[in-house]
Amino acid sequence: MRRCIRAAGLVFAVAVLAPATASATTATATSVVVSPNGNLVYAGFNGVGFSVFSRDPSTGQLSVLGEAPGAPTGGGLFNPSLAVSPDGANVYGVDGQGNELLQYAPASGGVASQQSYPVLADTTVAKDPITLTVSPDGSSVYVLTYGVLYGSSGVTSDGKINVFQRDPGTGDLTLVQTTPLDTSSNFGGAVGNDAVMSPDGKFIYVSSENATGGIYVLSRDTTTGMVTVLERDGNLNAGNALAISPDGNYVYETGAPSTSSSASSAISVLSRDASTGLLTPVDEVQNGANGVSGLSDMWSVAVSPDGNCLYATSRADNSLGYFTRNQSSGALTFDGVVNNGSGGVTGLADARQVTVSPDGNNVYVASPDDNGVAVFSRNPTTCAPAFLELVQDLFTLGQPSIDPTEGTATLPVSVDTGGALAVSVAPVTAEGSSARRAATDAQVIQVSQAGMVTVPVTLDSSQAQELDALHQLSVKATLTFTASGGVPTTKATVIQLVKATGSVSTLHVSPSTFSLAGRKARGHCVALTRNNVARNHCRRPIMLRVNYTLNVPDPVIFTIKVQAPGRRAGRLCVKPLRNSQRQRKCTRLVALHGQIQETGTAGANQFTWGGVVGGHRLGAGSYVLMATPLGGATKRVSFKLLP
């Protein structure tokens, strides 16, 4: 089906909250399949990989087991489509960006033994694998590739079907054929959206997204698995998805109505000749006509194993429609629609792939916008689905909360079951691609139940100094969660720590004018007054109060410059020389050796200064006091010392 959605020192605090929704989830879920024996459910989600759930056969409800790894390169999968071999021994998935077909072997608590195969050796064209299907006998795997040239407009005839032979013993694949769907290019190039196979394994049907639409009919050699394009049924407009009845007599396609190019949606019913494989349109159910409603932009369709019911999802209406099916004529009768947010139903926002369990007891829908899979029980007589639960990711990393004042971050981690969460943090390059220093030893948090784990991150002294100096530092947090009885699943996120630059908003020296001349009184040198003018002269010790205001806690460096006479030399004020006496006079600032360092708090600060800098006491003159917070702008104020 076409997916158009295109530290080292750590301190951990754990808070476990009661879950708001049931069970386990898959972020941005776009596909969902059930194993042939009905015991496992796999849900593919964009940007990561896929989740693995055990299924309760009595209720159909799901319990999280783990997550499969993404692409072998370490990246996530782009809009993955999934398929399970008939023997249940392998799960296959395609990566829509990596031109890869991935093979997994289910294991206790999840999946393991990943292998990858290039869908096509020729990488000059964007392959964009869309969907895949496995033959009923398990001997072949088929992958549709989109075939759009980057940098060009429109679609070429490069849309292909790629045939892989499958070793039933190992599950390994060998590419044996690649053929365009539109061999003649008579229809403007074929773009496959979805593929289904007849129960006897002799024919494959591919829905086409290109403007002229239609369904491509391919015959299949049951010995070699290779295919031959027989025809294109041009009676249909662009289609999204296909389903075939269990008896193989009818094919159903969702897409635009054959009688209109409008944005409305329809399900086309086509009878199938079992001997030739060719299709004949016999009916069409259109949204907005004959009582059918709430199913705009239908995206996926599935027929129940008993053949009595058909289910269709609507992206635009966030709904799941259900139909009774006449097994003799293939005709559909609209029975109703289940809407997201109505009657406690969740998990149908931007509803995508729908599938029915092999025992026919449950319906599952992948929902990107609800970040999970909606689980329904199914009434086999009325076809009505009843909402059971929304399951989501095994564990999900939330958006970190950055504290620019302290230069720390808090990372919320939502876990969907009990287990152990191991977390390690390491500084990374500015691009966030690789660690400059080794990661810290992972610290393990034991989680007793589903809920939220809050991980505050603090830095050690060397990292804190780096953050203070640069005011930003990227760290990579790597989290590995092992559900109780499950296998480890790892996710990582890069967090950009920031620390606000210190800024001095006010700066005062009091008094701004201080007289060094004093009089001796009772063993002290005090300020000159009318009453002590006759006493002996002395030089008063300097005593100035410096007040300043900071926006954040930050070290502040204070330096002193003295005002001295100078002469203009262009735009500069320089030291007077014998040959510059005719130049215009000016006042220059001469920096004095030494500095004063204070550690300020956020808000008002003050300290008393005795007029000593660099080991020398200031004399009479005009000065400028300059306050510079670490990495911040300089604030200055003038003061005078009178003789």
Topology summary:
Blueprint: E1 29-34, E2 40-45, E3 50-55, E4 62-68, E5 81-84, E6 91-95, E7 100-107, E8 110-118, E9 129-134, E10 140-145, E11 160-166, E12 173-180, E13 192-197, E14 203-208, E15 215-220, E16 227-233, E17 239-244, E18 250-255, E19 266-272, E20 279-286, E21 298-303, E22 309-314, E23 319-325, E24 332-339, E25 354-356, E26 362-367, E27 372-378, E28 385-391, E29 395-397, E30 401-403, E31 408-415, E32 419-427, E33 443-447, E34 451-457, H1 461-470, E35 472-483, E36 488-498, E37 504-510, E38 513-515, E39 517-521, E40 524-527, E41 537-539, E42 544-550, E43 554-569, E44 572-574, E45 585-591, E46 596-600, E47 603-609, E48 612-613, E49 616-617, E50 621-629, E51 635-642
Parallel strand pairs: 38-51
Antiparallel strand pairs: 1-2, 2-3, 3-4, 5-6, 6-7, 7-8, 9-10, 10-11, 11-12, 13-14, 14-15, 15-16, 17-18, 18-19, 19-20, 21-22, 22-23, 23-24, 25-26, 26-27, 27-28, 29-31, 30-31, 31-34, 32-33, 32-35, 35-36, 37-42, 39-40, 39-41, 42-47, 43-44, 43-45, 43-46, 43-50, 48-49, 50-51
